[in-house]
Amino acid sequence: MRRRLFGSVRARATLGATLVVAVALLAAGASVLLALRSNLTDQASSEAESSARKVAVSIATGTAPAALELPDGDDTPVQVVDGDGRLLAASEDLERISGTGSSAVRPVTPPVDDDDGGDDDGGDDGGSDRHGGKGKGKGKGGDDDSYAYGEIADDAEGGKGSATVDGETRDHRFAALEVKNTRQGDLTVYAGASLSAEQSAVGTALTVMLTGFPVLLGVVGAVTWLVTRRALRPVEGIRSEMSAITASQDLARRVPEPATHDEVARLARTTNETLAALETSVERQRRFVADASHELRSPIASLRTQLEVGAAHPELLDVEGAVADTVRLQELAAGLLLLARLDAGERPGEARVDLATLSGEELSQRPAGRVAVRTHLRPVEVAGSRSQLARVVGNLLDNAQRHARSRVDIAVRAEGPWAVVEVGDDGGGVPEAERERIFERFVRLDDARARDDGGAGLGLAIARDVAVRHGGALTVSSSPAGGALFELRLPVAPTA
To answer: Which residue, among 137, 170, 145, 132, has the nearest Cα to 48 in the 3D structure?
Structure first.
């Protein structure tokens, strides 16, 4: 059952289309997910860098780390770390963090420089403001350089980590931005942007794909199955009709031709043409066998009768009649054998034959008859079988001498790429309506004529078949003398 299912063109087409669509969907889905993740990650990196730059600007403009107003750690966790890795400032409610320069979540108090003065100065509060972070206004005014202006780096470094706020851990994209030459030395600001939106969007897209792709593949498979079934329905009709023709051996039947202009319609038309040619061939073969049997029956019966009479009464034996019947039987058998070889596709060969010489030889083998033969022979060579071409010329001469009243003309010449042999007579000619029919096998127009005089009706059929096999043609028309004019055209042999 499985082999039968996958042996179906419809099943293979459906499976192939589904696999192609599945691969395309997987590739497209993967590309979409990667592009979506990349875009959202880049967006989070930009947000993290923007938050880090805002804090860095505050530090660079004189705000002490302890006095910074940092964003909520739930969405944007921030750390300010000095060159020694100490945490100077951090977002509130931050419980745990990774992926930054420090894993600490509680800032430490920066150390106090000895040369900043103290209580010995007798009431200078600048030091207290400087270390306690309460001298913000003086730092910006310029009279007190407690926090000097810093230099912000042009580019921020990116990284990935996590942050835990209120017991909830989220993945973040962090940006590290360095601020140089501050009061505390070189500081680094770490700011993060949550990747929850990216993870949610990718998860939603993945869920949609996992849900929609099987449905889409099912739709593609069903549509392909229905479309191929409809497209192949005429093929099944052709197959079933051919099976019926094979079973019944009725070559007159034809397969149905769909009213379309696609490959299936052309297949049906070609199949019908093949059936027609096969029917014609089989019918021709049947008629050939029937006619051959009929034609062979007469000389064999006549010969047997004469031999039986001769055996009973030797003095009554007609030796000349027996010899004539034997010759006729021999010629008929030779003609049938040649037709069988031609029907079997025997190739004519590549021998070079001079038609003028060949025609002269055929004339010399015939006894002088009651009609004169005029010749106009010019040498011209063709390629083919000498024996078959001799049979053609001999058949044309026999036919002309049989129907001529007083004269037969034979001419051989070259006309461009063709070698032409013309055989004409001054007999009754061939009616125009019968000029193709006379080349059929066992056809004789003069049915009243005696068989011994009229032949078996194979000569002209053999002559045309040989001409066609040699790449030429044999036609009949009216001769100038009023009789029939047979014209044989063959390709001139190429120059050696």
So the answer is: 170
How do 168-182 and 157-165 pair as beta strands?
antiparallel
Beta-bridge partners for 179: 152, 187
Task: Report, as an integer, the average pLDDT of 278-286.
Answer: 82
Three-class SS state of 389: helix
Neighbours of 198 (CB within 10 A): 21
> What are 395's two structure tokens?
């058949």
Q: Read off the tokens for 60.
A: 């660079």
Check if the beta carbon of residue 109 is closer than 8 Å to that of residue 146.
no
CA distance linking residue 253 with residue 95, whole number of Å: 90
Task: Tell me: pLDDT of 489 over 50.
Answer: yes
pTM above 0.70, yes or no: no
Which pair of structure tokens corresponds to residue 165?
Answer: 């706020």
CB 257 within 8 A of CB 265: yes
Q: Mind listing the domains of the chain with CATH numbers?
A: 2-28+201-243 (no CATH), 49-197 (no CATH), 251-346 (1.10.287.130), 347-491 (3.30.565.10)
Helix (H, G, I), strand (E, B) or coil at 444: coil
